[in-house]
Amino acid sequence: MLGAVSAEVRQLARFSRGRPGFLCGLGVVALTIFLAVFGPSLAPYGPEEALPGVANLPPSRDHWMGTDISGMDVFSRVMAAPRIDLTIALVSTAAAFAAGVILGVISGFFAGGRGIWGRLSGAIVRGADIFQAFPVFIFALALVGFRGPSIQNVILALAFLNIPFFLRLTRGAVLHMRERPFVEAARCVGGSGLRIAFVHVMPNALTPALANLSPTIGFSILLASALSFVGAGVPIPTPEWGSMIAIGAPNMMTGQWWTALFPGLALGLTILGYALVGDGFRYYLDPVNRR
Amino acid sequence: MGAPLLAVDALVKHFPLGHGRTVKAVNGISFQIERGEALGLVGESGSGKTTVGRCVLRLIDPTSGAIGFRGEDILGMTPEQFRERRRHIQLVFQEPYDSLNPRMRIGRILDEPLMLARRGAPSARLSRVHDLLDMVGLGRTFIDLYPHQLSGGEQQRVGIARAIATDPDLVVLDEPTSALDVSVRAEILDLLVDLQARLGFAYLFISHDLTAVRRVCQRVIVMYLGRIVETARTAEIFERPLHPYSRALLSSVLYPDPMKEQARFLLTGEIPSPIDLPPGCPLYARCPWARPTCDLSVPPLEALLPDRHVACFRAREENGIGAC
Amino acid sequence: MSAAGSGGSADPLLEVRGLEVEYARNSGPVRVLDGVSLTIAPGESLGVVGESGVGKTVLVRAILGLLDPPWRVVSGTVSYREQNLLALPEAALRQLRGKEIALTTHEPRKHLNPVATVGEQMARVVQAHRPTSRADARARAVELLRLVGIPDPELRLQAYPHELSGGMCQRVVIAMALAHSPKLLMGDEPTAGLDVTISLQILDLMRDLVRDFHSSLLLVSRDLGVVAHYCQRVAVMYAGQLVEVADVPSFFAGAIHPYSRRLLRAAVAATSDRRGTLSQVGARAERGAACCPYAPRCPLRLERCTRESPPLESVAAARWVRCFRHAEITAGLEAP
Of the candidates A113, B161, B207, B82, which has an alpha carbon nearest to the alpha carbon of residue C196? Predict the structure, then answer.
């Protein structure tokens, strides 16, 4: 087991050589994961600890990034936020990926077929069309209206949003793959439709979806932040970059720039990092390139 | 002798293109293959030979006609019923690399037909996979490799091993050597002959290369634009091709010997499109023997000599054969 | 050193010397061409033969300066009319391409613009090197299409590449290549993927046109049969090097290099019905190492062959072989 892991690490190291963008992105991803796990414990102050009498202080030695309007330390909150943001992004993206890929494989492999599977395929695509036409904000706001603001609702909203994306990516790859001779060969040796779709075609059609996993995670963080910004996201004292920006935005006009700027920078760098990783990952995952 | 292993009767396949147009790929093909026989199906692009192969395997459903395999009508079966029969007809593909799943190891690729045919426990199947690799001249170390780590010739050997894994009665070979380098071609053809001698299955060898067919098959059928134009024993067609298209095919073979200049029998022009088939003989526009009457109706396949069928109005005269 | 691989004594039209090309990979650069030298005389047809992956296409692209990273020319010269093509700037090369040296490739349909008609593409080619009016370019295009045997050329001008058959696309590509009567036509497997009866027409066409224009022909092929009937000289490539260069009659009467002999035997076996006994697939070639690249598979291998790389030596008039044991093979003492 350990041997396999160290071999992977060495592969990764060799792959990263000469790819500075990928390396930087990998660093960002690693940092966010680290903060997600250890952030709240390492933070100098409690992330939801409202200290009396220290509201709206600019950056100083006591508070490296200053304090916000409620007296909470900005730096601690910036460090604690990845746990929330990453959880939301990872869970929603994973759910969207799983559902999107499966639906994509079914709708791609059986597309144009005459039987029940063919019709199911068409229905799935129409469903995805309808979903994508729906503005995510309206959907999220409706959900919040029904069920109140919470992390679970944000995850749900983002998962649904991203399903059509992974669905289309996979469906396109499947439509392409199913014309390849090895798929015909699988039929020849006696495979049934479902078996061929999931055992043969799916592993070869995952690449576009996998390559977009990382950028989608980054984008989901942005979306979660946007939802929090409009009040349809996480409840208020929870440390989350978007909600921190929302709290701090009015203050920018009165000169307290630190409350919104630091979380904003953190958000931007994170999304960039995840996007850079995603591009390199596509090449890394192809067995042909793993020499 | 009994019933032939494969009996194809009046096979027709038209692919609809929309707007009422169709690609008339196969236009009435009939032939038979006996157990253990090797039949070559020769033609160029547009001849329909690949489509015939796919129909025999029911990878494509024909427009009309009948296909009997081991005495059963396979076109009348449901897909599930036919899937049980699939293990008895297998296919070797033209593209060695593309016919293998790039993310599967060779061992798994070869195990799959055995597993689907329920050939025993994994250990028994593994031993069979070892045997298959031996039979096609590859070592057991190939089990853990991925397709891209093999050369073209090795990949094709894996394709052949996969095809014979379930002891089929008939192996359809779709241009098995066309994508391979010349130095590997002869090896693969010899392997095919060897395997047939040892294991006794029949071949339907589809190819545009008459010399490859000669090496493996005892009988050959020449196709042009979806019809059979000549059938013969392989040795005889090389000695004396009767149909003008067979003649042209043979004379286009470039032997690696500058001294071996062949008498050129040239066809002019391009192969017509299978969408707009001419009303008469399909070769009419290109044939040096053509007369206006050739364009009026499709020449029937007649026995000009014992065991020799030719579809040409002028063949008898041009070849100097008396009336039967 | 005297021009290796040269045929005639007259001034060669094109001379390649010591061409080395690398391909950069994650795990380090790979030597694709390992010191290739050959010459082509005016009006001559030379066949370059080798199996897939041996570097034939890279050679042809290198001559025209069409290699982009990750390929890289490491060293060598390509002399055409006193100029080293490898040292020329892109602008000067563009003057040469299509005008003096032309290239046709295999899979012609892939090398034609799918969203432009044949007429538009041919007009562009005609106008590329000579200011021509639209009407004149069109007339010239019709003339060229007729020259390559396309029926109803005026109608074909409106066609898109996907509407033409493979054979017709290849004729169009040849027409474009010959538009400016180049001195050298390079054909990279021009009949790959084409039907047998059409291939013959294409090869005859190329041979006749080259003869009528007094041009030279460099034919790259995997098929020894093509070379036997359409070339005057043949150069055999293996693992990025030339291993034998000879005129066609001598070569086919008796090749010398063990690899050439194996290739020839295999080609004969593939087209005959006699069963042969060929050895199994052997080890892969060693590239760029200090040994004979064919040594791992060579039945005549000596200890010396694994330590030294044999040079391309002149063994007879206009005949070169890269093998330490060529003298013994020629004398018939060894039959690999």
Answer: B207
Q: Is the pLDDT of residue C49 over 50?
A: yes
Q: Is a pLDDT exceeding 50 seen at residue C53?
A: yes
Strand order in the sheet with B308-310: B89-92, B170-174, B202-207, B38-42, B219-224, B227-233, B308-310, B302-305
Q: Cα separation of B93 and A192, whole Å? A: 20
Rounded distance between C-alpha atoms, residue A106 and residue A118, angstroms: 9
Assign A126 to helix, strand or coil: helix
Give the count of alpha carbons within 13 A of C168, CB side only. Answer: 22
Residue C280 has pLDDT above 70, yes or no: no
Select from C168, C200, C266 the Cβ nearest to the Cβ of B270. C168
Confidence category of residue C281, pLDDT binned at 50, 70, 90: very low
Instruction: Express as a percent the part of chain A with pLDDT over 90.
Output: 16
Cα(A165)–Cα(B167) distance, rounded to whole angstroms? 45
Question: Cα–Cα distance between C311 and C328 in angstroms, integer?
Answer: 16
Strands (E), chain A: none
pTM of the model: 0.83
Say whether C193 sits in a helix, a strand or coil: coil
Chain centroid, CA B183 distance in Å: 22
Tell me the C-alpha distance between A155 and A153, whole Å.
5
Count contacts between A and B (CB, < 8 Å). Answer: 59
Q: Distance from C116 to chain B by nearest Cα, in Å?
A: 22
- Cβ under 8 Å to A: C residues 23-42: 25-27
Which residue type does C67 have? L
Residue numbers in A near B93 (CB within 8 A): 181, 184-185
Q: Tell me, what DSSP letter sits at residue C109?
A: G
Q: For residue A109, report the phi and psi dihedrals to the nearest 5 degrees.
A: -70, -40
Q: What's the rounded Cα separation, in Å, for the pair B59 and A93?
A: 38
Q: Which residues of chain B lie closer than 8 angstroms to C200, CB-CB?
A: 252, 254, 264, 266
Q: Can you tell me the distance from the alpha carbon of C259 to that of C238, in angstroms, rounded to the nearest whole number? A: 8
DSSP secondary structure of C243-310: EEEEEHHHHHH---SHHHHHHHHHHHHHHSSS---PPPP-PPPP-SSSS-TTGGG-TT--TGGGTSPP
From CA A152, how far away is CA C170, in angstroms rounded?
A: 62
Give the total residue count for chain A.
Answer: 291
Strand partners, C101: C97, C184
Residues of B whose CB is below 8 A from A188: 57, 59, 86, 90-91
- Within 106-145 of B, beta carbons closer than 8 Å to A belong to 112-113, 116-117
For chain B positions 104-143, those within 8 Å of chain C (CB to CB) are 137
DSSP A198: I
Q: How many residues does chain B have?
A: 324
Coil/strand/helix, residue C4:
coil
Q: What is the pLDDT of residues A61-80, one digit of tens each?
A: 877 888 877 778 888 888 88
A291 contact residues in C (CB cutoff 8 A): 25-27
Q: Do C262 and B187 touch (CB under 8 A)?
A: no
Least confident of A226-240, B25-39, B147-161, B300-314: A226-240
| Structural contact between residues B142 and B154, judged by C-beta atoms closer than 8 angstroms | yes
Q: What is the pLDDT of residues C77-130, one digit of tens each?
A: 999 988 888 888 888 888 888 888 999 887 888 888 888 999 999 988 888 888
CB B129 within 8 A of CB B114: yes
Residue B251 is which amino acid?
S
| Partner C contacted by B145 (CB < 8 A) | no
* The pLDDT of residue C283: 44
B91 touches chain A (CB under 8 A): yes
Cβ separation C278–B187 shorter than 8 A: yes
